[in-house]
Amino acid sequence: MTQQKTIPKPSTKESLFSIGEHFYALESLLIENEGEITNEIDQWLDEYQAKEEDKLDAYCYLIQKFDEIAAEAKRLADRSSSYSKKAKHLKDRLKLYMENRGKQKVETGRFTLTVCGNGGLLPIRLYEDVTVERLPQSFVKVYTEPDLSALRDAILTGDKEAQQFAQVLPRGTHLRIK
Length: 178
Fold this sequence. Notes:
Blueprint (H helix, E strand, L loop, with lengths): L15 H17 L6 H63 L3 E3 L4 E3 L33 H9 L3 H4 L15
Antiparallel strand pairs: 1-2
Helix pairs in contact: 1-2
């Protein structure tokens, strides 16, 4: 009767980079042994290949789940925005109705509705013929920010002045999971 060896599923508690360090150690060991793969090296390699695969699979699973949760949150946020707009529309209609009926307060079996004044700063509206250009500088806010597109274009065409303020970086990379 032959005994069947069962190889336990490797634990993925070890960090991804710790697993990677074992591959560097394996590489060093192989160099020391002049490329000869002993049983010990072979077992170690099998163990860490399995751990690496499990860890990568776990990472991808988490990424996929987080993406799904983010998509669901966006979907709910979109619905929330829609429902908020519907609620505001209904509230505005109720307020208009009460104002047209001359009622400041109405009580129903479940709710009390009151048309009341807003707090905070007094609202202001520019006259229709007033544009920003017509306003004195003391009544205008000016926002300035770097024009990164113009800087990029200037640097790429060899502009020495632009190169004193910024540099063009290489494109980054990203991970695609299928």
